[in-house]
Amino acid sequence: MAGQSLTSILPALGFLDAVVQDNTLAREFYDALFPELLYRAEAVPERWEANLGERMVFTRSSLLSASTSPLTPGFDPAPESPAYEQWEVVAAQYGKSLDTNMPASRTALASLFARNAKTLGLNAGQTLNRLARNKLFCNYVGGSTLTTAAGVAITALPVSSVNGFGTVIVNGQIVPVSGTNPKSTTVSGVAGTVDVVAATPTNPLEPNGPGILTLAAVATWAIDAVVTASDAPTILRSGGGTSVDSLTSTDILTVQNIRDAVATLRRNRVPPHEDGYYHCHLDPIAESQLFADNEFQRLLQSLPDDFRYQRFAIGRLANCVFYSNNESPNSQNTNTLVATRGSAFASPSLGTEVINDAGVAIIRTIITGGSAIMEKWVDETAEYASEAGYQGKVGAFSVVNNGIVVPIERARYIIRAPQDRLQQIVSQSWSATLDFGVPADLLSGLTGARFKRAVTIESGSAL
After folding, report:
1. Residue 142 has pLDDT above 80, yes or no
2. How far apart, in Å, are the Cα atoms of 148 and each of 38, 162, 184, 230, 279?
3. Which strand (E) or helix (H) includes residue 114?
4. Which residues are paired to 147 by β-bridges?
5. Which of 166, 169, 113 is nearest to 142 (CA)?
6. pLDDT at 385 over 50
7. Distances, alpha carbon 49 to alpha carbons 59, 120, 181, in Å
C-alpha cells in the first residue's frame, strides 16, 4: 500500500484498511480464479482495442501446392496465389456483482468481505473458463447431429442441433448457408449428398440448439438418422460408432482412442503446444475409464508403486499431457438441457447432445494442439476509465470514482464504495470484455474439416 491507506483516499472504504493493507483481497481473488481456468489456459491471449459488439475478422492463408515438376527451359514459372479463409470474434462484456452489508464488528466484516471476494472470484473463474470451453467444443463437435423425426419427400430436416450447419467459407469469407452457398451434407439412408440452404434453431436465443435444416431438394429419412456436414471436424468414438447413439456404458475411453487422436493431429500437421506436448482434457470418469483399458494396464503391469496408481494421475502418454478436468462438459454442467428424441437431451450452450437416445451419458475428452483457441480481450482498466478522473491509486489498484479496480487475469475486480444513505452496503463486481475465437484450417492439413487443431473423443457412461 506504500504507506497510503484507503481512508486517506476514500473515507467510505476506511473500514477495509485491515483487510487490504496486506493485499488480502487481491490474493483472495487471484487464488480463487486460477484453479478454474484449465480450458481458458489453452487460449492464446491477445489484447484487443475494440468497442462492445464490435466484430473482428481474421484471415489465414493456405499453403501453395508443392512444385514437383521441373520448369520448362526458357519459361518463367506461372504465378500462383494462395487461398484465404476467415474466422471471427465479437467483443462482449461479462460480469457479476455481490453486495456486502456492514456488520458492527470489523472482524466479522473482514471475514464476510473476504468470503464474498472468493465467491465472486470462483464465479469469474467458472464463467470465463466455460466461455472458452463452450466455444472450443461448439466448434469441434459441430456439423454432426441426428434427426429427431422421420421425413418423407420433404425439405425440412429436423435435427437435435443445428450447430455447424449455418455457415460456409466461400472465397475465404464466412457466409450464411443459402441457395447460392449451400453446405454439402450426408444423411444416413439418403443416397449421395444433400445441400443445406438454411439452418433455423427452434429457439432463436439458442442458436446451437435443436432446429430445422432446410434442404435444396426433397429427401426421405428415418428418425435417428446421422447427419454430417462435409466440413465437420473429426470426432472419435469409443467402439467405433458413427453417432452418440452408438455409445453404451461399456464403450470406455482407451489408449487406442488417444493414439488415433494424436495421429489425426499429426497428419493434419497440427503443432503441439509450446511445452512440446498436445493437451488432453478429460473428465474424472474418462480418467477412470482409461485405467480400466487393457492396453493401459499392460503398460503398467507389475508397477503398483508407479505414480499413476499412487496419485490416480496419468501424467504424460502418447505425446500428450493429461489434465483431469472436472469442468469437462457433461449433463450436469452445461446449463439447461433440451429434450430432443426418446431419452436424448441436448445442451444448446455446447451445441450437441449430452445424453443419447438410450439414456447413456456422453463423456467428452478433447485433445488440443497449438493455437486451437485464441482469447481476444479488451483492457477495461485503460479503455473504460471515466473522464471524471481518478481519486488516487493504492498499490496495484486503480481508484475509479467511488471504487477500486484490481485488474487480475485480464478481468477487472471492482470494489465500489457504499452508495446507500447509511453508507452500509459495499459492492464487489468482476467484469471482462473479450471473446474466444477458434481459428479455421479448412485450406490446410489432409482432412476436409474446417477445424483441425483439436480432436474430440466421445465415450459412454452410466453415471
Report:
1. yes
2. 34, 12, 20, 20, 34
3. helix 106-141
4. 159
5. 166
6. yes
7. 18, 26, 33
Task: Give the model's pLDDT for residue 53.
Answer: 83
Residues written for the chain: 463
User: Average pLDDT for residues 172-199, to the nearest whole number?
Assistant: 95
In the structure, what pLDDT confidence band is assigned to residue 56 with cuts at 50, 70 and 90? confident
H or E stretch including 120? helix 106-141
Give the rounded distance of the alpha carbon of 208 from its chain centre: 14
Beta carbons within 10 angstroms of residue 348's beta carbon: 26
> Rounded CA gap, 36 and 34, in Å?
6
* DSSP at 32: H
- Would you kindly state where each structural domain of the chain is located, as residue ranges? 16-61+83-136+384-436, 144-228, 232-374+440-461
Distance CA(83)–CA(148), nearest Å, equals 37
The structure's pTM equals: 0.85
Highest mean pLDDT out of 55-64, 206-215, 307-316: 206-215
Four-residue CA torsion sign, 271, 272, 274, 275: negative
For every residue of 387-449, DSSP letters joined together read TT-EEEEETTEEEETTEEEEEETTEEEEEEPP-STTS-EEEEEEEEEEEEE----TTSSSS--
| CA–CA separation, 74 and 315 (whole Å) | 59
Burial tier of 261 (Cβ tally within 10 Å: 0-12, 13-18, 19+): buried
Phi-psi region of 100 (alpha: psi -120 to 50; beta: other; left: phi over 0): beta
